[in-house]
Design a protein that fits this description.
Blueprint lengths: L1 H14 L4 E4 L1 H7 L6 E7 L4 H12 L1 H6 L2 E7 L4 H11 L4 E5 L2 H5 L7 E6 L4 E6 L4 H9 L1
């Protein structure tokens, strides 16, 4: 009985995890207009320790963001989809993860990662900032 319960729990948790997809400027704008109060977009890469720390912070506090109607989107600048997919599966992120086809990184000057970009509920750019931030720092940026 215990094995069955653990198997069901594992299947449910896998179903709640992020799926990695490609994204470009065309389908990105639609993600900003989904009824959230704000959208936080993080540009990151698998090799970046600061990115990993920021993604971990976002994942650990996902419930807070969800209850505040804040959408979290992680956009990888890596070129190898399998590397990104393996990393996402290993970490079990609960937010949407994409691989940039190239134009979003340029559009938002995400040459130094991690780069966080915040959009308001109308999809308008509100703020950008580089580097890893703590949960409290992120809340400050979101409340300004």
């Amino acid at each position: 009985m215990k094995k069955i319960f653990l198997t069901v729990l594992l299947l449910i948790s896998v179903g709640l995890r992020a799926e990695v997809r490609e994204i470009d400027g065309h389908n990105f704008s639609g993600l900003l207009l989904q009824g959230y109060n704000k959208t936080v977009v993080v540009f990151w890469a698998v090799y970046c320790p600061y990115c990993k720390a920021l993604l971990k912070t976002l994942n650990e506090n996902y419930e807070y963001f969800r209850t505040q109607k804040i959408n979290i989107i992680a956009i990888s600048t890596d070129k190898n989809p399998q590397l990104v997919d393996d990393f996402v599966r290993k970490n079990g992120f609960h937010f949407n993860v994409y691989i940039d086809k190239g134009d979003l990184k340029k559009k938002y000057n995400a040459y130094y990662i991690p780069m966080t970009v915040i959009f308001d509920k109308k999809g308008e750019l509100e703020d950008t900032f580089p580097g890893n931030k703590s949960f409290d720092q992120l809340k400050e940026y979101l409340n300004d």
